[in-house]
Amino acid sequence: MKYEAVIGLEIHVQLNSATKLFCDCPNRPGDEPNRNTCPVCLWLPGNLPHLSREALEKATVACLALNCTIQPVSAFDQKVYYYPDLPKGFQLSQHHLPLSRNGWVDIAAEKGGMKRLRIHHIHMEEDVAKLVHETEGKTPISLVDFNRAGTPLIEIVSEPDIRSPYEAMEYIKALRTQLRYTGTAECSMEQGTMRVDANISIRPEGTSEFNTKVEVKNMNSIRNVGDAIAYEITRQTECLEKGEAIILHTRLWDPDKRVTTAMRGKFAGPCVPDPSVAKIRVTEDWLKRMQERLPEMPAKKAERFVTEYGLTPDEALAMSLDRDISEFFEDTAKRGLSPHKVTNWITTHLAPMLKDRNQTIEETALTAERFARLLAMLEKGVINAHGAREILLKLLESNESPEDLVEKGQFRQVSDTSELEGIIDGIIADHSADVEDFRKGNEKVVGFLMGLAMKASKGKANPKLLREMLVKRLG
Amino acid sequence: MSGIYTYKNVLTDAPAGAASPLAGVRVVVQPNISVRGWPCDAGSKALEGFVPLQDAEVVTRLKSAGALLVGSSRMAELGFGLTGETSVRSLGEGADVAAMTDTMGEARVASATEGFFGFKPSFGLVSRFGLIGLVPSMECTGVAGRDLNSIIDIMTTIAGKDPNDPSMPDEPPVDFTSTPQGFEGPFRAGIVKESLDLLNETEAHAFKAGLARMEAIGAAIEEVSLPGYSLFRAVHNTVAAVEASSSAGKYDSVRFGHRSPQGRNWNEMYLASRGESFRLPVKAFLFQGAFFQFEDYGAFEDACRIRNRLVRETTDVLGAVDFLVFPTRRMEHDAWAAGSVRAVYESFMLTLPANVTGSPAVQVPGCAVHDGVDIGLQIMGRRRDDARLLSAASAIASSVLRG
Ligand SMILES: [Zn+2]
């Protein structure tokens, strides 16, 4: 029998608000342990939570970016469970009345076209403290760091629309793109600002029932989510084929062994309305202001890049995925350059450089204005691609003008025929055997000799001119 | 240490200026009202050694109005009932007024037993910031005193919006300044016929005497009906137990409170510590709450729905009369001796409706008396009608003084 997977994802995203959700402590979990704490987030007796306006606004903008409908009334509940990372005995979370419902994102379907994946709801909740276990020493001890306690999260609960590891990964990437665009969250699985739990069940292909699901946790990259789901689908299929029943439980992904293993029975506590945190009632006016905060989102922007700049759909997609890049592209292209050339330089040169340096454009010294001047010099033949690349590296680090860098670094392209003639003379004289080869019909020799000639010009030769002259001489 | 106080203020605060509204007024607090630097154990081993880092908003306001905080009393564990409570007894010994939590009628019943005035303000009128509470939606800081004027003075000081308590509604402040002179009779008072079944013969006589006192100052008394009256107790018990179970969840004995040496891991240590810390009847009450949370959530939801209905019914009845009148306590149900949840509830049957609905209620001594027994006259008003309620109580009290 052929089976298909039914996958639902529950994704926790840390909002990047300045303060925690219910107090004014800085939302910086990574600081020196227990530095960002107060009686509210230490959950000491006598204290009352007061909802952060900024966190609520960021959560709302995030929901809007995921096409969710903001609910007119939402409220916090106490999710009761007892664990040392939650010494107050309950977590404030929106169980009964979430902030928003009914959203969606589009992904590129595996077999081409688009597929819409629905979001059931998004709710806000506070994060719990972090436990640090020290097992070395005579008595093992566990330390509690409250920096993370009370920091704002949104939990994005999907509908069970996802059918494959590929779709799960695309769904996460789509969420990440949308949320990063709004500037409300960083969404890094590696750094723990995005945590994904997957619910997986399988059923005979073509049927519509929902079977017992298994929850998988502890994946720390998008790739791991795909792998864990793939592993779980295989495992469950094997179980069914052996005639074993699937039992509702939670499994942990082991990134080293690349398997999932069962963890102890999950304890689901009750959710009771919290009597202290005021209900959230959304006014039309406020909601309108939140909608105005939403930037032009990637899909819209890509469409516009096609019509306004004549990019191909692929180019437009590449230029719109990241908000910084999209703004940088547009700012550069507006300065009278070929949009295709700008796209090409961003994708093949600038983006890999940024990745290498682990920086965003903002974090470098590069501006669109100087980038445009650099590309203009390239277009006019003042410098060649090799020189432009060298200068671009320098532009990331200093505020010098690209023109000054060309002069200082002697990057000006050599188009002087007598100078190039001299270089070619030298190469031909030193490599008579290769020249013979060419004349016997080995065309590859041209590339080899071009390489030597470019090197001899210290990369400054006008490559088009050089090649023409070289071929002429060889012929 | 005396039998009344768990902590006595040793600091001789600089005498407040004569202009301070509460200059020279001596206030005792229960040890669940945070006073910075004072031990505040809320009467429970679970909070042993807990010292708040901040004053409760009530305390901040009392201090800045020039009141002298004389110390903290003993109290029933976590403010559930009156077992072991001593703050009203301090009113004869060193204190003028007591600030005490009223979750099901504690301030009113304690005052009635000792022959004092006791007041529970409207819910949302006094900040809960710094109150180490148990039932957030029902409790508030009440005041017990030997005369109504001092209670009114305290209310003038402590009532009003506090940004640190976001559960307080954004409403204009209640103006206590014209109380008690501002009272303009006559008024209509309703007696809830369903409540009369709770009284024995002596209590019924005493209540009648109290009503006569009201009529003497011009009140028109009429019988009204609250069909859901018999549900107040079940609603209070269910909702309060669930909220208490959540509120008491934070007592994990790790950072403060009694910590048991038993247990091989954190879970066993929690269980042992909590088991050794809580006493009856609180322990049973928390069990009830956990039961509803984990095993019968539907019952809790029903209770919340019925609570809304009771609030509506009460509001409707209070639209036709100015006040509702009840006795405060029943002689055979001694709140101090209550050792079970059932017994605790029995002793607050007449007061807990005001906590369910969030209405203000005041206990007046010396009028509902029969055969030398004072069961207390309790007047309940519309929410936020606190000032007029205290005015009416003042008028009745003056007539008692005149004889
Ligand atoms: Zn804090």
SSE inventory with pairings:
The complex is a heterodimer of chains A (475) and B (403).
Chain A (H helix, E strand, L loop, with lengths): L2 E12 L38 H13 L3 E2 L2 E2 L2 E4 L9 E4 L6 E9 L5 E13 L3 E5 L6 E5 L6 E7 L6 H18 L11 E11 L9 E4 L4 H20 L7 E6 L4 E4 L8 E3 L6 E2 L2 H10 L4 H12 L3 H8 L2 H11 L5 H19 L10 H12 L5 H11 L6 H7 L8 H14 L1 H8 L4 H13 L6 H12 L1
Parallel strand pairs in A: 12-13
Antiparallel strand pairs in A: 1-10, 1-11, 2-6, 3-16, 4-5, 4-15, 6-7, 7-10, 8-9, 11-12, 13-14
Helix pairs in contact in A: 1-4, 2-3, 5-6, 7-8, 7-9, 9-10, 12-14, 12-15, 13-14, 14-15
Chain B lengths: L4 E4 L17 E4 L27 H8 L3 E6 L23 E6 L3 H9 L2 E4 L19 E6 L2 H11 L29 E5 L8 H16 L3 E5 L7 H16 L18 H12 L4 H14 L1 H24 L2 E5 L13 H7 L4 H6 L3 E4 L4 E2 L2 E2 L2 E4 L5 H17 L1
Bound molecules: zinc ion.
The site of zinc ion has 8 residues of chain A, from loops.
Descriptive overview:
- The complex is a heterodimer of chains A (475) and B (403).
- Chain A is 40% helix and 20% strand.
- Chain A has 475 residues and is of the alpha+beta class.
- Chain A is elongated, with a radius of gyration of 29 Å.
- Chain B has an 11-stranded mixed β-sheet, with helices on both faces. In chain B, strands 11-12 form a two-stranded antiparallel sheet.
- Chain B starts with a strand and ends with a helix.
- The A-B interface holds A 39, 42-51, 78, 80, 82, 84, 87-90, 142, 269-270, 272-273, 275-278 and B 34, 40, 42, 47, 50, 52-54, 56, 128-133, 136-137, 163-167, 242-243, 245-246, 248-250, 252, 254-255, 266-267, 270, 293-294, 297, 300, 304.
- Zinc ion is lined by residues 20, 23, 25, 37-38, 40-41, 150 of chain A.
